[in-house]
Design a protein that fits this description.
Catalyzes the conversion of dethiobiotin (DTB) to biotin by the insertion of a sulfur atom into dethiobiotin via a radical-based mechanism. One of its GO terms (molecular function) is 4 iron, 4 sulfur cluster binding. The structure is a single chain. The chain is of the alpha/beta class. It has a single domain, classed as Aldolase class I (TIM Barrel). The protein is 42% helix and 14% strand. It has 13 helices and ten strands. Strands 1, 2, 3, 4, 5, 6, 7, 8, 9 and 10 form a ten-stranded parallel sheet that branches. 50% of the residues are buried.
């Protein structure tokens, strides 16, 4: 395959076909670096040398009613994750300020466990936190709070919300193997509702749950249709007590890099990032995620696991000659 020529066609506006994407994600190890170089061409055209950094706070943890196979916060699984109610707005704001100061994060997301934020008290606290972040930081404001109706989204928008994070998680054809307490279509509807309300959408998935390479491509094309502004790629970091951990088989760093590169070809102008699991799946090859087509990553800790120290991430970005925006 002529990866460079295909990259030029994508840059010129040609939409990749499903078969082409499937051929790309099946690139053999010996041709992977040719593939990554072509994906980097696309990223350079649309994103230049710019990198965006996201940070999150696990603002409400544990006791989730949903049974997602990978999630340590599900009440259906026996894990050692901490459980606590929604943080006070001042505590959320403190986390946001620390992220901006200590890790150069440019986007901050308030994440809550549970299918949805339902009570008026929780909605009020999140709204107050958004107002504080809007007034006292320069960061983009995001929430990851499960299923939201249009009224709630509009209310949070008035409080400063700019973006909703809501992953599809996996391909529709594989979704029943991941979660049975809600449907794939419910997730799609939340994304559509947010877009109708004028909110940016960040939506991606979690990989290495047992899905096929074809299903990874299936998810990429579903995301292309939904047209989010940002696509986070997460690689399973197995947590003891979850069904996904019991079935876990390690993924190779080259397979992860091919996944990123394929998504860059399918979604050439989107912000694409490698988030959860990058330390455990890429190990010493982490810098190559930016060569493979990523232009975003998450700094600091994840929801229930520790992340790499922010100073190491910032050094990695500087060493690659990239600029944080």
């Amino acid at each position: 395959m002529d990866y460079q020529q295909l990259a030029k066609e994508v840059i010129a506006g040609s939409a990749l076909s499903f078969k082409q994407a499937l051929d790309l994600i099946n690139t053999p190890d010996e041709h992977t670096f040719e593939f990554l170089a072509a994906a980097n061409m696309i990223k350079q055209h649309f994103k230049g040398n710019k990198v965006k950094l996201c940070a999150i706070v696990n603002a409400k943890s544990g006791q989730c009613s949903e049974n997602c196979s990978f999630c340590a916060q599900s009440a259906h699984h026996k894990t050692k994750v901490s459980s606590y109610p929604l943080m006070e707005p001042a505590e959320i704001l403190k986390n946001a300020k620390n992220a901006e100061t200590n890790s150069s994060a440019t986007c901050f997301s308030i994440v809550t466990s549970g299918k949805a934020v339902k009570t008026a008290e929780e909605k009020q606290k999140i709204g107050e936190a958004l107002e504080g972040i809007s007034a006292q930081t320069q960061m983009n404001r995001c929430v990851s709070t499960g299923t939201l109706d249009k009224e709630t989204i509009l209310d949070l928008k008035n409080k400063g919300l700019k973006r909703l994070h809501h992953n599809l998680e996996t391909a529709e054809s594989f979704f029943p193997q991941v979660c049975t307490t809600h449907t794939y279509q419910e997730r799609v509807e939340t994304i559509k509702t947010a877009k109708e309300a004028g909110i940016e959408v960040c939506s991606g998935g979690i990989f290495n749950l047992g899905e096929s390479l074809e299903q990874r491509v299936e998810l990429a094309f579903a995301l292309r249709e939904l047209d989010p502004v940002s696509v986070p790629i997460n690689i399973l970091n197995p947590i003891e007590g979850t069904p996904a951990a019991a079935r876990f088989k390690p993924i190779s760093p080259l397979e992860v890099l091919r996944l990123i590169a394929t998504y860059r070809f399918v979604l050439p102008d989107k912000d694409i990032g490698l988030f959860g699991g990058r330390e455990t799946s890429l190990k010493e090859l982490q810098p190559l995620m930016f060569i493979a087509g990523a232009n975003v990553t998450l700094v600091g800790d994840y929801l229930t696991t520790k992340g790499q120290e922010a100073n190491k991430d910032l050094e990695m970005i500087r060493n690659l000659g990239l600029e944080i925006v």
